[in-house]
């Protein structure tokens, strides 16, 4: 049997500003998926990186008074730092100013040109630098302040007149609709799919794919007065990292990507333009694009004018990394919008982690340490209650898998918490502290069964809380194989366990 592969991406983040909660969110979600698929034994390729060209980045560099490349170097380093702090396990970090990417962009441009999908014309219309997007007039409105804004995003637009190369997007309407039809799971969630479908059904205009009014971009091959439109440049990152244009590269085995994770505001680029570019170049489109919702902070939209972009790193220092990762993926159903507040963070951490998982682990492991010789206790004659809990533990990976396939992180976590509640109820009902005097062999069986449940929790929760679950599995003396497959083995009775320490302290921060 050949090993299944899984190629997952985050958007590449613009280097016009510092990384914030929103970027950390997408990266954490992608990381949990990458780690989950590795646990399943798949050959995973996980890509993240930075989007460094275009007018917006050029303007930010100018405002900072430094050259765009130097500016991009600084901010890209900050994004790499955020990934390190968040324990993001990417296999590659791509920067669009790298030579491999220039080569890849120019190669796909030539392919599109050879295939007759590019022509020279002139663009005259609205452009929003903040969104790096062209808009039809009907997609904008003039506000009382005399400025015209894009309706979808609220970004100011400006009138642009310049020579431009165009991509014959209009010719792809039927092909795209046929692709969506044949691949019902291509765009998720369903509401987004409907939005994209109606956009494509309403008819597609050709797309301007080069700019001449600034130079911070990848030169159009054969006509260096033009730089490529930053979204064409940016989307191509996903094939560059897979080795394009070298389709014999070992990494090309990962293409097509299994999943592009994106925020809801960039679904059109990923679900319309990107598959059309790929079809035009004779490359297979990605398998799935999933759009997630947006976080507000303490009820407010994060924005430059409010100055309330929050950096995740001080929160990690304050609350702990896995606490933040857990909160991000548990608090809001993936795909929905949500609000980030200190109050809900503190509540979650205390209720679910300190009092829930942490307490279960601590009360079980310290009891074993004190009363069962500090080893994995032997399993005696199991009773139906023991078997029921062990069966719940055995069923957990399958239940979580079903949720992970739908990117329902909160449901996957809820499955784990059902097991935690079942284990808590089991301890209370079996009362090992009482059995210590009345039936020590039975006590050991109960403790063994609790270790089975803890091992299932520790292994399956690694993608969400890698550091703390590594500690939990160390306390259970689990060997090197910590994949889902390892759960099938019986627990090795009598193996010495290290002295456990608390996993998740209660937090007392102010809301
Ligand atoms: O759009 N809530 O980069 P970008 C949740 N370079 N997620 C958020 C968020 C929020 N409030 N704010 C941002 C770009 N994000 C392009 C992408 S890909 C070929 C090019 C996340 O720096 C979310 O994933 O503006 C969103 O799509 C991404 O950051 C946008 O990052």
From the structure above, extract its key features.
alpha/beta; 17 helices
Short summary:
This protein has 511 residues and is α/β, with parallel strands linked by helices.
Report on this model:
The chain is of the alpha/beta class. The protein has a domain of 147 residues: Isoleucyl-tRNA Synthetase, Domain 1 (Orthogonal Bundle). The protein is 47% helix and 16% strand. The protein contains 17 helices and 19 strands. The strands form 5 sheets. Strands 1, 2, 3, 4, 10, 15 and 16 form a 7-stranded parallel β-sheet that branches. Strand 13 and strand 14 form a beta hairpin. Bound molecules: ligand ME8. Ligand ME8 binds next to strand 2, helix 1, helix 7 and strand 15.
Q: How many separate helices?
A: 17
Distance between the termini: 52 Å
| Uncertain residue segments | none
Structural class: alpha/beta
Question: Which distinct ligands sit in these coordinates?
Answer: ligand ME8
Strand content: 15-25%
Which architecture of the domain at 342-488 per CATH? Answer: Orthogonal Bundle
Main beta sheet, described? 7 strands, parallel
CATH names the topology of the domain at 342-488 as: Isoleucyl-tRNA Synthetase, Domain 1
CA-based gyration radius: 26 Å
Percent helix: 40-55%
CATH superfamily annotation of the domain at 342-488: Isoleucyl-tRNA Synthetase, Domain 1
CATH class of the domain at 342-488: Mainly Alpha
